[in-house]
């Protein structure tokens, strides 16, 4: 089975044709085509000209992450929440 390791948003993902992955927000609406040119590895070989094509499925926000700061006996506590913007991408093709 052909697979590739791509890099996007500072993270690396192992993908195969037909996979659906969640990556940090990419520009584009649902149905738009995207291309990942930063392919680190492709099915057992290093190929600098390899690329991975995909299709944007949806734009959404991830789960809320809570950061809670607390100092004991000082009466200090702060709560900060964050929801990362993500893009769901379906991998359509791996070009070697």
Quick synopsis:
0% of the residues lie in helices and 69% in strands. The protein is mainly beta and 96 residues long.
Mean pLDDT score, rounded? 94
What global shape is seen?
elongated
Count of discrete alpha- or pi-helical segments spanning 4 or more residues: 0
Unreliable sequence segments:
none
The strand count comes to 7
Which structural class best describes the helix and strand composition?
A: mainly beta
Protein architecture, described:
By secondary structure, this protein is mostly beta strands. It has one domain. It has no helices and seven strands. Strands 3-7-6-4 form a four-stranded antiparallel sheet, with no helix packed on it. It is elongated.
List the helices and strands and how they pair.
Layout: E1 3-8, E2 11-16, E3 20-24, E4 33-36, E5 39-42, E6 51-71, E7 76-95
């Amino acid at each position: 089975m052909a697979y590739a390791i791509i890099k996007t948003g500072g993270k690396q993902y192992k993908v195969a044709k037909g996979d659906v992955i969640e990556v940090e927000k990419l520009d584009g609406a649902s149905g738009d085509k995207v291309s990942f040119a930063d392919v680190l590895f492709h099915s057992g070989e290093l190929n600098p000209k390899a690329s991975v094509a995909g299709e944007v499925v949806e734009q959404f926000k991830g789960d809320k992450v809570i950061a809670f700061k607390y100092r004991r006996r000082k009466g200090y506590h702060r709560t900060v929440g964050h929801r990362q913007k993500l893009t769901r991408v379906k991998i359509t093709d791996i070009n070697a």
